Amino acid sequence: MFGFTVVWFGQFVSMLGSGMTRFALTIWAWQVTGEATALALVGLFSFAPAVILSPIAGAVVDRVPRKVVMIASDLAAGLSTVVILILHLTGHLEIWHLYATGFFASAFESFQFPAYSAAITTMIDKKHYTRANAMLSLAGSASGIIAPALAGALLVFLGIDGIMGIDIVTFLFAIGALLFVFIPNPKQTAVGRASRGSLLSESAFGFRYIFSNSSLLGLQLVFFAINLTATFATTLFAPMILARTADNSVILGTTQMMFGVGGVVGGLIIAAWGGLKQRIHGVLFGMILASVLGQAVIGIGQSLWVWCVGAFFMVFFIPLINGSNQAIWQAKIPPDIQGKVFATRRLIAQISAPIAMILGGRLADTVFEPAMTSGGAMAKLFGPLVGTGPGAGMGLMFVISGVLGVVVGCVGYLIPAVRCAEDRIPDHDTSEPAPAWPRGYIRVPPPAEINE
């Protein structure tokens, strides 16, 4: 765990710097445009390439040492911050520059998730998988507490340029941590040998592998649905708070900090506890609780304290959800194909998020916000629930998102292939060699025909 902890701490410091920059640029973008759509597009361009390019990234991750992939990803993210800093210093920064640099950094970030996730499998024992993944959530959440508070305080003294300067230093720190640690390469398995081929065929391998097993596919479709419903609203969190508080950056920073507090508390509990024995309950029941106590409460809220409660609980369950799900996959998938399979996982689960980002911003600006003004088409029906005026339409979208999230979790429980996924798929380290299958078709063997 020592080597993993060193890498983890380097990434935490890097996320801290990135969070500070993101906070400062969010306020800048809102002040320049005043549109939810603009912020949604920034999120889209900073997210979509990482998802769309995942299959190619996964194939590369299983060919190249994972440390090299992670270092290259960090360098690309740092370079994008350098470009934004230069443009702002020279007075040429425009909103479309955030789209372009976000796209560039996101393209390289597509390599980070499969490389990082697969590296965990070779660095630590499987009994620590849930804890390690909870630590990853903990790092993201802790940076969510510190970054908005630091950015809000330092923005007055250092400005956006100083914040981005700190961000660049943190990227260098993360790279230094990676250089210090040895990350073992995985042993080759029968499935890994059968998966070899051209970059194109290896990029498609993850799809063949997941689609050949109903439990694996079912798990990913659950995450596809929950990411669609959750992102539909969460993209609008910053513009909703700013609209309801007359651009009060202190309230925005405080509520965003509570996301981090919830994630830290949840991450510490899971890291100490280890999670539920039946991890699928952590996935599905966690989704239900996060939707009810998080998204719905945020939408109903019209004051700082209610928003803080909703933000806390929305992220409190994320370490349980992601840690449980990630541990299932790390235990079941052979390490030498995890790059390809995990990258495809990300594409299937998160391809819905860019769709939701586009729809969320446009629906907020053209439908829900106008309809929830005083005397608007929906004001009489939903006004008693979420209020009326600026931000109320986006609040209603949060409530709708929460209801849909509950539906997704319940449907997952109703599908046997999802509910019983852990029992239906053998662990990769308790199996025996499988026969070599034709390169064009790879399937997950049943227990009577287990791979190594």
Mean pLDDT: 82
CATH architecture: Up-down Bundle
Q: Detail the poorly predicted runs.
A: 432-452
Structural class of the secondary elements? mainly alpha
The CATH topology label is: Growth Hormone, Chain: A
Give me the Rg, rounded: 22 Å
Brief synopsis:
This protein is mainly α and 452 residues long. It has helices spanning 2-33, 36-45, 48-52, 54-61, 66-89, 95-123, 129-180, 190-195, 199-211, 214-234, 237-244, 249-273, 279-300, 304-316, 318-332, 338-350, 352-371, 379-386, 392-414, 416-419, 421-424.
Explain what the structure shows.
With 452 residues, the protein is an all-alpha fold. The chain has one domain (2-449): Growth Hormone, Chain: A (Up-down Bundle), CATH 1.20.1250.20. 79% of the residues lie in helices and 0% in strands. The chain contains 21 helices and no strands. The chain has helices spanning 2-33, 36-45, 48-52, 54-61, 66-89, 95-123, 129-180, 190-195, 199-211, 214-234, 237-244, 249-273, 279-300, 304-316, 318-332, 338-350, 352-371, 379-386, 392-414, 416-419, 421-424. Helix 4 (54-61) runs parallel beside helix 6 (95-123). Residues 432-452 have low confidence and may be disordered.
Write the layout of secondary structure elements.
Elements: H1 2-33, H2 36-45, H3 48-52, H4 54-61, H5 66-89, H6 95-123, H7 129-180, H8 190-195, H9 199-211, H10 214-234, H11 237-244, H12 249-273, H13 279-300, H14 304-316, H15 318-332, H16 338-350, H17 352-371, H18 379-386, H19 392-414, H20 416-419, H21 421-424
Q: What keyword list fits this structure?
A:
452 residues, mainly alpha, Growth Hormone, Chain: A, 79% helix, globular
